[in-house]
Amino acid sequence: MHEHAIHPVSPEWAAKAKIDAETYALKYRASIDDPDSFWLGEAQRLDWMQQPTKIKNTSFDRDDFRIKWFEDGTLNLATNCLDRHLEKRGQDVAIIWEPDHPDTPNRIITYDQLYKDVCRFANTLKADGVKKGDRVTIYLPMVPEAAVAMLACARIGAVHSIVFAGFSPDALAQRINDCDSQIVLTADEGLRGGKKVPLKANVDAACEKANVRTVIMLRHTGADVPMVEGRDVDWHDAIEPHNAECPPAEMNAEDPLFILYTSGSTGQPKGVLHTTGGYALWASMTHEYVFDYRPGEVYWCAADIGWVTGHSYVVYGPLANGATTLMFEGVPNYPDFSRFWQVVDKYKVEQFYTAPTALRALMREGDEWVKKTSRKSLRILGSVGEPINPEAWDWYYNVVGDGRCPIADTWWQTETGGHMIAPLPGAHSLKPGAAAFPLFGVQPALVDPTDGHIVEGATEGALVILDSWPGQMRTVYGDHDRFIQTYFTQYPGKYFTGDGARRDEDGYYWITGRIDDVINVSGHRMGTAEVESALVEHPCVAEAAVVGMPHDVKGQGIYAFVTTTATTDNSEELRKELVQWVRKEIGPIATPDVVQFAPGLPKTRSGKIMRRILRKIAENDTGNLGDISTLADPGVVDDLLANSPHAK
Ligand code: ATP
Ligand code: MG
């Protein structure tokens, strides 16, 4: 394999970081040995109305199943994100909004202003009849009103369900119905990369299949959209009569905060339910430690609020910590491939957080787009969503970060509420492609997928978590059996993540991909990440997705879908070269049987490769591709089908 340098913690980082190696070791031990004291301590980062006295009350045993944290404590998450900052930081910037196009005026919103906007909108929701526990569907683009809506729900105890503002009317209707929400918050249109998204029209279509009482619509692009009498109201008209003071609801720590449907990479999306206290603590704590955040710094997570990353790391974590959080409406390649880095320079961003899919897309366009910007303000870079290939990691580190900025490769899930495994910049040497070590209270283990026994030492297996952590989801909304079935049945008594991982001789965790995607070639088990990373090492390859295919002799063969860089000619020679390349990089066992060039890979709207579709193509079983409603561009699939060797 290619050598990727290990990066030790620099002396400066060790000296100034919030958590150094020694502190990490001590705190981690304490979090496992005496969780009640540890978490009571960490809970002091929140303002409680009623301090909790019962801390951890959890069991993953089927017969005695319970997940409760801080169960007699009460609090309100909106006051934690707003009210308590007003005295000292009212004039500090809470949200910087950077619009889709750089020439559109931006918006700078202070904590004072955000507090007023949230109270006003909370009163608006109340006046519409929204009560504690009611579900509110949010289908808004990346505008500050989206954060206002979330916090307004939290303020009155309503449960928000955000649906990514790119999903189809059907997908929206399905999610409105699943949680039975009577109200939808939307905008006339969204705007991404200069393209308009007909949000209100989508809501209208969804409402034909759902029972919606009220639609509150924000005028964003100013498009002329029809309004339904008695159901639809203009956002500004709706808030007009209401004042900017709204007493916060006193919420039990275990009261629901939000529902969020998973990306649907592996199947039917699940309505993940998070509660108030544990989630708030988890989002705040991980945001502070993983990004080494200090008030006053400009922090930017480029994820959409439609994903859990946007919930925990654009809104709740940063605002609970009194941060300045940047909210970006646009996309990385508009107006050009330099946009991310221009925005970094414009606001002197110190922490920047994005997904490998964006990095690979930018990397294939060459370094010039990055190099013409300064990026001097950057201190930390984050990655989330998929395993980051070592090649992309090196590019992020060397080209974007100029070799100065530690990379936080954060492994976590919608279900986990926040980061679970990630290196801390002042504590851990970095290995490109490794998510490294568990955060406080997180007890990862690897099990043998065939019989479920725990495997120790440097080895590979299915990734499980042995005990509860405060940010854990509490149920699948409306289907507790599915919750138990999905996460606690395969390996009884343990939380099953669905992912596979490797632990190396230094104890670092490397996520190898979804366990369902593991390929078994002649009895040799291989994670998809490893083969894909080998392909991405080749200078002509921008992105790769690997799946298993039936093979008479080997049981399974390797089928690789490959997207090449902008300037590459997809020749027969290159195909042969890639086969030899993987053989040389990993070994003969990993020799791809098929390499198919693909102009694009099927991805979820959150940017993840949907391997289950590729698997069907590789198996030549394309009659029923399953639920593809969360696919970003279904057209990609037609191209793959037309060019698959089976089609010829
Ligand atoms: P669904 O559960 O509906 O199939 P999903 O798993 O894609 O969708 P998310 O909760 O958004 O939905 O994604 C979590 C998954 O993303 C993880 O289980 C893991 O497979 C992958 N992932 C996230 N971060 C990382 C990371 N840093 N390294 C490797 N994999 C990651
Ligand atoms: Mg998942």
TrEMBL record:
Where is ATP annotated to bind? 385-387, 409-414, 499, 514, 525
Residues annotated as binding CoA: 192-195, 309, 333, 522, 583
Q: Which parts of the sequence belong to the Acetyl-coenzyme A synthetase N-terminal domain?
A: 27-81
- List residues of the AMP-binding enzyme C-terminal domain: 530-608
**Enzyme class of the recorded protein, top EC level:** ligase
Which SUPFAM superfamilies does the annotation name?
Answer: Acetyl-CoA synthetase-like
This protein's cofactor list reads: Mg(2+)
UniProt keyword annotation of Nucleotide-binding present: yes
Q: Which domain of life is it from?
A: Bacteria
Enzyme Commission identifier(s)? 6.2.1.1
* A Pfam family per the record: AMP-binding
Domain named AMP-dependent synthetase/ligase: residues: 83-465
* PROSITE patterns linked: AMP_BINDING
Q: Which UniProt keywords apply?
A: Acetylation, ATP-binding, Ligase, Magnesium, Metal-binding, Nucleotide-binding
Quick one: which residues bind Mg(2+)?
A: 536, 538, 541
Q: Catalytic activity, per the record?
A: acetate + ATP + CoA = acetyl-CoA + AMP + diphosphate
* Posttranslational modification: Acetylated. Deacetylation by the SIR2-homolog deacetylase activates the enzyme.
The record's GO molecular-function terms, alphabetically, read: acetate-CoA ligase activity
Sites bearing N6-acetyllysine, chain numbering: 608
Q: Which NCBIfam families did the record assign?
A: Ac_CoA_lig_AcsA, PRK00174.1
Q: By its UniProt entry, which PANTHER family does this protein fall under?
A: ACETYL-COENZYME A SYNTHETASE, ACETYL-COENZYME A SYNTHETASE 1
Q: Which HAMAP family match?
A: Ac_CoA_synth
- Role this protein plays: Catalyzes the conversion of acetate into acetyl-CoA (AcCoA), an essential intermediate at the junction of anabolic and catabolic pathways. AcsA undergoes a two-step reaction. In the first half reaction, AcsA combines acetate with ATP to form acetyl-adenylate (AcAMP) intermediate. In the second half reaction, it can then transfer the acetyl group from AcAMP to the sulfhydryl group of CoA, forming the product AcCoA.
The entry's family comment says: Belongs to the ATP-dependent AMP-binding enzyme family.
Q: Specify the protein name.
A: Acetyl-coenzyme A synthetase
* Gene transcribed to yield this protein: acs
